[in-house]
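Blinded run. Sample ID left blank on purpose so nobody reads anything into the name before looking at the predicted structure. Input follows.
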Amino acid sequence: MTKTVLLIIHEQTSSTDTGIIGQVLLDAGHVVKTHEVFSLSQAGTRTINTELPDPGNFDAVIAFGSFSHIYEITEEWISREIEYIAALHQQRIPYLGICFGAQLLAESLGGQTVRADRIEAGLISFEPGHRCPIAPGPWFSWHSDRVELPDGIDVLAKTAIAPQVFRTERSIGVQFHPEVDRELMEEWIRIGGHELEGVLDADDLRRDWAAHEPSAERNTRELLDWFLSDTAPVEAPGRPVRDAGPKS
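Blinded prediction complete.
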């Protein structure tokens, strides 16, 4: 069934920031709306758009990553977005947070984001014992932070560095980047490749991705199927079922 999905973007790049996820949603016939938190004028001036759309207009919301670190941001927009995500959760509107978007979810639930012991970059797989209904890997990862979650949040998968999948009711956070395709990976290497120095050779990352891209794309489709079918059932197009299922 067709859903109306809001995509929240935190970066401005020359590639499609929503990557595989945006394309898969469109291919499936869903109505996709995009909110860009930042925009650049022709003169290079950055504008922050904190006027997030009415949550009631969407069946699901997906928030994407950022090169920023939550604990370093002092601008008002970060508090506004955390409050927005808290409202989504309270209204039981399905939410999928990706990397930075997952950290925003953690903060909205009373958790916090801290610097990880080391950067986690490249293709990863979950530790044994994961409990989520998606493949353990490969997943594209690029982050140097991790979430610390409050009691009652279900951690479904993790690595030695960080929780990778967590869920509460209709809100899901994933620390990795299921949206990444080759174009987006190349853009991140161009913008932030210095972060990989001494950790991962960019050419090794390219070769690894080329070998595993088909599997990673299948995994992303599986993740979206789980998110949209398990957390975002609808009675009619464009309207979420607010009271379906018991709260955990």
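Unblinding after everyone has recorded impressions. The longest strand covers residues 112-124.
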